[in-house]
Amino acid sequence: MKTCIVCILISCLMVCCKQAEQKEQAIQQQAQVYLDDYNKEYQRLYYASSLAQWKLNTRIVKGDTTSEYEAGEADKALAKYTGSKSNIDSAQKYLAIKDKLTALQARQFEAILFNAGNNPETAGSVVERRIKITNEQTSALFGFKYMLNGKAVTTGEIDQILQTSTDLNERLAAWTASKEVGKVLKAGVDSLQHLRNASVTPLNYKDFFDYNAQEYGMSGDEMVKLTRQFISEIWPLYRELHTWARYELAKRYKQPVPDYIPAHWLPNRWGQSWGDLVNVQGLNIDPVLKARGPEWMAHQSEKFYESIGFDSLPASFWKNSSLYPVPADSPFSKNNHASAWHMDLDKDVRSLQSIVPTTDYWSTVLHELGHIYYYMSYSIPEVPVILRNGANRGFHEAFGSMMGLASLQKPFLENLKMISSSVSTNDTLKMLNEALEYIVHIPWGSGVMTEFEYALYSKNLPENQYNKTWWDLVKKYQGIVPPSERSEAYCDAASKTHITDDPAQYYDYSIANVLLFQFHTYIAKNILHQDPHATNYWGNKAVGDFLKSVMKTGASVDWRKHLQETIHSDMSAKPMLDYFAPLMTWLQNVNKGRKYTLPEKM
User: Fold this and answer.
1) In 83-154, which residue ranges form alpha helices assigned H by DSSP?
2) What is the pLDDT of residues 80-110, one digit of tens each?
3) Which residues contact 150 (CB under 8 A, 6 or more apart)?
4) How far apart are CA 43 and CA 553, in angstroms?
5) C-beta separation of 88 from 118 below 8 A
6) Are 383 and 556 in contact (CB under 8 A)?
7) Strand bridging mode 349-352 / 339-342
8) What are the pLDDT digits (tens) for 495-508?
9) DSSP H helical segments within 379-449, as ranges?
């Protein structure tokens, strides 16, 4: 009798389990039907928006607002779909029973809800107004005619002066000309500050800065804490670089050593990279690049990726991309900020560049193709359209920047016969050049840009304090000051494209710099078995296989777990600091007896 009762109980339990399993399967099937429909429609609207934005960014005709209008309409259609109440309700409904879904389904619903957060239907006309002003700002920024001594000039020509001229008057004129665009953009920044915040608060995000940080699984305050930690970790090295640069520049321009670096003394409009202060004898590849030309640079970059096992770029990439500058007297202009575009989240990949035959642009081309190959790696059936992105946004930048770093190391250049194998180089100066790019960028990216946008969106920075706040941050974090007083008539922050078209995400670059040294060190030590300072990725299929394994998952996995599973580490600046440890010792010796003007700790 007891046995019979036990059998009955077991039988009932099995029936209940089977029913529960069938119910769970039914929920997953129902969810999958919804997700398939969402992904299909999202891809269609995303592609239409990308095509319109491509036209807006590659052919800007002063006075013609057709492209602005078309981009606005396409953007509104995408925003209306992603932010629709029905999609928000559906995502929330399924996430309430997250334990009944597959892990991949749950990640898609989380992505759907995140996308809705910037465009919720409940925000009403706010989203439409935000889109309109964003596109107006894009046209104003990239359609702006920069004038120098009464002549129209390109930003490339301004950059060339800042990179090469030793005439302080010429430098001052070029730097000042580069900031005039801020006057035109200031009112739009003020409008977007409020519209961007108002777009995200209906779904309970604190503000626009906080919303963007949530994609990393962090609050805005947590993100700022992390980026301040990066600054603190690299600050002793940055302080040495800043001291070295003050004395070096004073000698170059035959001026007294300043406490803070005048902005027009530096080789970059924002002081974000100082690599041009160092000429590494034997590693100057400008003459080689000028002889071979921009087209060679583009196609040779593709050959590099092919050499490590990636496929050729599709023919459509070469047909549809915009890779070279437009002349200064062209009837139209274009966005001159190098970028990679995943137009349809599938096979249509493009790049927008203005390739010139310089060492800097050589690494830029490799960087942008790094993004393109990342797109191609995760554009596979196993990764749903909505999750075709980097494991986090910093991953994308990390792989692009890593290729830029690797492309300028001596063994790599020797392999391409861009330098002679017998050439003698100063390895300390080479490391100094790298530090003036990667270390110098962190106080700029984590400090100035991140803190400004944090103040803009999270602290509701008043319009009449934009320029003062900007220059206070520049002085605090970069140790740089303007050549003369900059009034509130200007908005010098807005001269940086990201304030307009990639807002409240600039810390991605700092995270990328940290990640790139982690990945590069791992590849150098565990795959190439080479010194991280002197690697050659070219032709090594094992490097390609490793990169593909990291790239192919897209955003379908948790980025923290992905780091642990691929390089067996959490995110850490230690590999970056280890890489530059020999340089730190050298700088401390060079700077003995010199006056330090930055605080010891930040």
Assistant:
1) 85-95, 103-117, 126-142
2) 999 999 999 999 999 999 999 999 999 999 9
3) none
4) 18
5) no
6) yes
7) antiparallel
8) 999 999 999 999 99
9) 393-406, 410-415, 427-442
